[in-house]
Structure formats: C-alpha cells, structure tokens
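Comment thread on ticket #2218

A.B. wrote:
> Attaching the input chain for the structure job we discussed in standup.
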Amino acid sequence: MRALAAGAVASLLLAPAAGAATSDRTGFRFTRTLGAQPGPVLLEPDGPLYAHSRPGFADLRIFDARGRQAPWRPLPPLGQPRRARVELLNRGRENGAAVALIDLGPERRVHDRIELDIPDSRFVGSVVVLGSDDRRSFSRLSETQIYDVRGARSARSTTALFPPSDHRYLQLRATGVSTIAGATVAYDPTQPRPRPVVATSTVRQRGDVTVVELDLRFSNVPVDRIDVESATGRFDRPVSIAASNTRGGFAVVGTGRLTRFRSVSFTSVPVQARARYLRVEIANGDDPPLGGLAVTALADPRTLLVAPGFVPPYRLLYGDPALRAPSYDFAALPPAELGLPLARAGRLGAETRNPEYEPPADTRSFARRHPEVVQAALALAAIAVAGAGFVALRKRA
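C.D. wrote:
> Ran it. Output below, let me know if you need it in another format.
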C-alpha cells in the first residue's frame, strides 16, 4: 500500500508539469521505442544509447503515447546499507602487519566497507582488503589509509573502503597499528554486481609484451573494471590499460600488477573508461606469455528510472549536441516517493533515424563554408599581381 501511495504521489506531482513541458523534436538525430507496463519503468542503457547521446544522457528526452514528456533520473539505491558485527579469525601479526580473516558466510551479500576496532591511539597506517570465495586464492580489493591524529584538531578514521564485493572471505592486513581488535561490515542487499560488457578480443605479442585489444562495438561505452584470467599458475607482471573511441589515439585509464602465487591472486584492475576500444598490455619480462589468457571488461549498472503516471509505450529521442540537460522535479524526490517496488524493466526497440530531424542551419561565414573557393580566389589574385608586375617591368625596360 505504501508503494502504491508513493507512486500516486509521484504521479500527481509530476504529470501536470511534464504534460506542460514541450520540446522541439527536429534537433534529435535518433529515436527508438521503449515498451513497458504502466508505472515506474527501469531503462538499461545500451551501446547505441551510449554512442549517440551526450555524457550523462543530457540530450535524452522521453515521450509517452500521448506525446507528454516523461521525466527520468538515474536509479537511486534500492535499499539502505546494513551493518553487522563480524567475528575475526586467525587474528595476529605477519611480516610487520596486523592481520585477520573474516568469514561472511555462504549467503551472497554485497559489501563495500569495514569499520575496524583499533585500540591504538596516535597512529598513521593503511589497511589492505583482499577477497576470496574459496579461501585459497585471494584478490586485492583496495588499500585505505587509517589514522588517529591528535593536535589542534583531532581526527580519526579506521574505515576501510573497497569496491562493492560479494566475496565470502575478506582478509585484512593493517600497517601502523598493533592489532585489529574487531570489525563491522556494511552491506547493501540490493547492490547490483558489475556486469560483463559484450566485446570481441584479439591477442598479439609485441616483443616481450602481450597486447589484448577489446572492441566493445560502440563508442563511449563505460567500463569500470578489467578482469584477467590465465591458466598460468604463478606470475607477477605489470599491466596497463588504455582506451580510445577511434583507435587513433589511446589514453591510459588504469595501471596495476597481475599477481598470482600461493594463496594470493590479484587479477582485477579498476579503470575509468568511456570508449569503444580497450588495449590491455601485459609486460612479460623474460617469462613466456601468460597461458590461457582471457580478458573481460565489466561495468557497474547505470540504470535509469522513468517516472510513473504516463502511458506506454514510450518514444526516446536523443542525439542533439546543442541541447542542455533536463531539469525535473522527479530528480529531487526522495527514494521513498518514487514507487521503486513497482518499477519494472522496459524493453528498448531498435535505434532508427528520427524522421523529424532537420540539420541545423549553417551559420558559418562564406569563407569558412567554402575554403576551397577562397583559396582559388587568392591564387588567382596572386597570379594577377604577378602578371601586373611582369608587365610593369617590361614597360620600364
């Protein structure tokens, strides 16, 4: 009942304003349909939408079956993070660091932080968090600074942050402190996991470097992590990831090391990329290339939420580089007023050219629009000046 009331409130707040909103549709290059049930709609952006819209979908406009503009916004978190006290296993010291192991149990839950109980005062150190599903092979998730500083202003922070993870086991290694006395983890039961990005890959050797190129098929596709799998048992090699939309110039978007030995496995590299092509370069040194190599690009979901109170099916319009980002009341509503429990996934149709599209008028000067004519005129003028000079010299002679 609460969800229904929330959806009704959102509809009353938004429908009149959105119905009054208008937009000139001749500036949008692309259009497609969005099939959906009545109510809030979940929209998963795809390759064509990333490639042909502005960053953040600033030029995206959505119209319902009656021609009314339907507000949209990024999907807010679907739940509140929960905190749970956990038992520390194998607590002690190893190679100058305080260590501990956490078993979060067989139930899959996504975590992104650990609050540590550190009995020390006045310290500056760091904590490394590693994750594992089998307790044999661990992947490095993050390293966070922890500190307790006293002075004119006192400050203390003992929270370790890491990318959302659903690993069962977490291993902690803290430097600069004597021990880890306890821990509390935070998790969001609704946090979605990163998803593989569809891509084709090629592998080649360039001297002692293995080069893997991924083609994501569309430009501006977001990527947040690169995972590397290999059949090689032990390795420790630098890796660099570069990105490009055109293959004409690659920019580095992430670096790290790929490491596997004993119970340690660091084979994921965080990146910040919006591109079609990714180039992963693994430096092999004097060792043979990694065997059974497989590289996967992953991205966090970037789901959009379309406001309730409108009539499906919807029509999407985008591809207007001059359009400013929309400003909707819907974007400012608290999550409890969005009717999220009623939201259902929509179905994107194929992208087509907008039949109403009209190319913008060319406001450039004649010289900028026709540089070849200007160059020809200058050449003729130069010839004329040269000819006049030659005639003048002949007369003097």
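A.B. wrote:
> Thanks. Noting for the ticket: Helices lie at 2-20, 47-52, 366-369, 371-396.
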